[in-house]
Each structure stands twice: as C-alpha cells, then as structure tokens.
Model the fold of this input.
Amino acid sequence: MESTLKKKYGLLTAIAMVVGIVIGSGVFFKAEAVLKATGGNMPMGIAAWLIVGFIMIVCSYTFATMATKYEKVNGIVDYAEMTVGRRYGYYVGWFMAVIYNPTLTSVLAWVSARFTCVLLGWDITGGPCMTITCFYLVGSYALNALSPVLAGKFQVTTTVIKLIPLLLMSVAGTLIGLSNGMTVRNFTQAAESGSSTGGGLFASVVAVAFAYEGWIIATSINSELKDSKKNLPRALIWGSLIVVAVYVFYYIGLAGVVPTEILMKNGQAGAELAFRKIFGPVGGSLIFVFVIISCLGTLNGLMLGCTRGMYSLAVRGSGPMPKVFSQVDPVTNMPGNSSVLGLLLCGVWLLYFFGAVLQTRPWFGPFCFDTSELPIITLYAGYIPIFLLLLMKGKELNVFNRFVMPTFAILGCVFMMIAACIAHGVSVVYYLMIFGVIMCIGIPFDPYRKKLR
Done:
C-alpha cells in the first residue's frame, strides 16, 4: 500500500471545514450551560462568547503564521515538532490521537442523537438515544473511510445547511425581540439580577470553549490541501471570524424569542421552542432538522481528524506499529488501519462518557470528568510551549507576528486553564491522573526516548 495522501481539497473545503467543525452542536448544546453558569445573565453570556472567540482568533492567527512555513501531515504535530522538538510533537500527536479527537467525536455523536430524540419526542437519556449515537458514529466513520472526497463535499454542504437556522434565528429573533421587548427584558432583567459573578463567567467560558473547539483539526488536512501555505492560513482566519460573528448574533436572536428562564430549564428543547415560535410547528421542526444536520456536519469533520490520528504518528515512525498504521489504501486514499483504530477509540470514550457524565450515579467514582471540556483546555495548555518557542525562534517574522500575537495567544491559553480550574475544581485533579496514565502508555512507543539515552 501507499503511504502518501494526495492533494484533493481546495480553499472552499478548508474554510467549510473550519466553520463546519466548529459551528454545529456547541452553540445549541452549550447555550443552556452558559445561561446556568451566569444565572441567566445575557450580557455576561455574550461576554463569554466574545472572550473565547477572541482567544480562538488569536490562536488561529498564530497557527496561520506557522502554516505559511510548515507543510507536512498533521498541522498541530508539525508545529510542535518545528518549534519545541520532535519528542514534544510526538506526545502532542499521541494526545490528539488517543484523547482529544475520540473524546470530542464521541460527544458529538451523542449530541447529534440527543437532538434527534428531541425532534422525535423520545427520551434523551435512554437506550434509543445511545443506539442512534452508535449509528451516527459508525456512519460518519464509513463516510470518511470509504470516500474522503464525498466526505469533503458533505462537509461543504452541511456547512451551508447549518448556517440556515443560525442566520434565521439571528435575524428574525433579533427583529422580533426588539419589536416585542423580549430582548430588552432578557438583557435588563439579567443585568439587574445581580447573579453575575467571576465564577459564573469562568464556568461559562469553559462551556463556550466546546462550542468554539475543533478548528485546529482542520490542520490535519494540511498535506492534502492544494496550495496549503496560502489556503490554510486563509481558511483559519476567515473561518474563525465567521464563527464568532454567527455565534454572537445567534445568541442575541435567541434572547429575542424565549425568556432566559425557559432556556435555562429546557436546554435543547428550549431552542426547538424558539424556532417553533418564529416559524410555526412545521417550519420550526424543519429548521430543527437543519440543526441536526449541522451537528452531523461537525461530527463528520471531527471524524476526519480522528481517522488520521494514529496515521500522523506512524508516518513519522512513532507510535505503535508504524508500518501498519502508515498504510494508505490505494483505492480510497485513506489510512484504513488508522481509521479503524480511531473508531474503536471513539467507542471506548463514548462508553466512558455514558458512565461518567450521563449516569445519575457515575460508574467510575471520583474519576469522572466532562469529556466535552477538559481535553479542550488541555490542548490550550499544549499550545503554550509552541507559542513560546515561536516567539523565541521566529526571527524572520515581523514584530506583530513574532511578539504581539503569540503573547496574546499565550495569555489566552493561561486564562482558559485558570477558568477550567475554577469551573471544575477537584475534577481537574482526577482528570489529570487519567491523562497522566494515558500519556505514560505512549512512552514505550516514543522513538525519541531511546535516542536520548
């Protein structure tokens, strides 16, 4: 078999991947969590969306600067190698392949199934929801593993579709809210409630991180992107700006239709109620179908990165069985063995999410954490050495790209870490224990460890 992926994606696909991976479930799934964290304080909620959006733009701009220099297999691993060193790059790649990609992919499959159950009026915690979750997970894997070109077209299509409900709610919700006074009520009542606290802001920021996360996975197609040194930076920057704008205006539009206390109480059902109020029962249900499709588009993008996780290590001669996981199928031009392992890891993390987060009595005692949030914050922590070394080594860059933006990016990452510790408390400690064990499992497969002796 071959071990080289062909250049098959254009700028439109890359932008669609950034927007498509990020926009999807998070803005719907985490709106409830943000409102609860802020006590229904809409201004503070919008502040959380803007803060994390700014951090995303700064980080994506800094990576875009590096993307003009490096072009290999998996962007984040490349940047870690070129700035900090190969050994650090290996452990970043191991984390992405074994923890980050499969945890987010499994959560997205469940969120897609949950919205489906809300639409059908089924129980969102029972067996049917988990059955649909597994179906979506396997279906997304099959699409990416059997036809990557078709998966790319699906990404573009779902990106367009998912913008429909967000833009409709942004425009219609804002106009209706301004005319009937709902927007003023929600903002004024929240501001006068006195419920805004620092802890509330930090907790909402961590929740919002899930809604913004995933853009870095778009760098996994760096070597498959046509003219990637120009197109990847464009995709990261334009994609990030589109996401921030859409999120903020959707959140404002939602505040113009449904009282915040109803959204806090009903979660995803509250979002469906908002669409039904504007467009009627039939129209609201149809648009909510678009919401489900948007979630599936996000799942497709995450699965694309998940299937390449172990491959990105294997082509560097690292990780378990490099010769096996570096193979690329000559017919589908996909890393088949890496794809299968990626799906299995998704299954393992889905089981953990079911037992640790969805159960009234968690299966794992204190060793339970929210897989939709803490792995994301870990990645932000992993960015810091990369940004520091870029700041130190980027002598050919101008002052703005070498010092200003990396400094802002580092401060943003530190802020996210502090917010996670405040929001999750002692759970962070137990998460770090699990994280440490999984990272230690990768030590025997570290080829650079032997060379250091």
User: Anything to note?
Assistant: Residues 11-447 form a domain with the Amino acid/polyamine transporter I fold (CATH 1.20.1740.10). Residues 268-307 form the longest helix (40 residues). The CA atoms of residues 276 and 282 lie 8 Å apart.
